[in-house]
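tmp note - HAD family hydrolase
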Amino acid sequence: MERAAVFDVDGTLVDTNHLHVVAWWEAFRQAGHDVPMHAVHRAVGLPSDDLVAHLLGDDRDPDRDDDISAGHKALYGQYFDRLPALPQAGELLRRLHRDGWAVVLATSAGGAELSALRRAIDADDAITATASADDVDAGKPAPEPVEHALELAGVPAERAVFVGDTVWDMRAGSRAGVRCVGVLCGGIPRADLEESGADVVYADPAHLLSALPGSPLA
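out:
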């Protein structure tokens, strides 16, 4: 395959961002921190360690970071058997696969969480590879996750498109030199996605699928 469609997963293909917000909010609360949900929402998409540091700042006790992340993981894990795919997410991946794209997932999820997300999408037959945060030294907004996805696909940046729902996705894709497509289904405003590097923005996977002939994934 000579071109790659790289997808973020949470908030892009699976409707999980607000589940993450609630789980992080409760994990912070249990650790004695009052973090507004709107602030948590804006940070979703960062790797766990970076998210905690971003929201609590340098004056926190870093020795508690792992406990907070573990709390989030346990709370979020309660949803694994009912994670909802976004409209036509699986259909979009299968269509791109039929059209000759190498479909690669670039996500911070791993292990049981990644398995649950893939079950929700239900398009394993269309997914060429998965690049997780465990495979790189730095997560989004660093370019490494997208660059690793391109390595797995064997495709140069100029032959790839990255689809994501957060400013961290758009920054990572832009820094990796790929064309970026934003989706609004993660709850981040269009203007923020465009300012962070999105060439074009769609409502959700179903909208992108319906508009495919005129999109960067044509």
